[in-house]
Amino acid sequence: MDFIGYPYKFLMTSTAKFQAGDQLIHLKSGGHYRVIGLGKMEANLEDVYIYEALRNHTLWVRPKAEMEDGRFVKQLG
User: Fold this and answer.
1) Partners of 26 in the beta sheet?
2) Can you say whether the dihedral through the CA atoms of 51, 38, 44, 69 is positive or negative?
3) What are phi and psi of 31, to 5 degrees?
4) 32-54: average pLDDT
């Protein structure tokens, strides 16, 4: 099963700006990414986004607050 389908939907919350499957653009780098879901940073239980670079399929993790501060925007269409 892919990351967007069950059982990973449970990782998203209604308070998340981006949802699993959303494609994003990083405004500074111009990179394109796909949201996998939300997780928790083990060290401090901070909410983090898990996302994939569409260029090379590398998985990344970034604090939720950073991801939602305007440096990423949802790709339209």
Assistant:
1) 72
2) positive
3) -70, 150
4) 94
Q: Give 22-44 as a DSSP string.
A: -EEEETTT--EEEEEEEEE-TTT
- Mapping DSSP to helix (H, G, I), strand (E, B) and coil, where does residue 4 land? coil
Q: Would you state the structure tokens that stand for residue 4, as one six-digit string?
A: 């967007």
Of the chain, the end-to-end C-alpha distance in Å amounts to 25
Strands, sheet with 72-74, edge to edge from the N-terminal-most edge strand: 59-63, 47-53, 32-40, 23-26, 72-74
Lookup: tokens for 60:
């990344």
Single-letter amino acid code for the residue at 64: K
Q: C-alpha dihedral over 39, 41, 47, 49, to 10 degrees?
A: -50
pTM of structure: 0.80
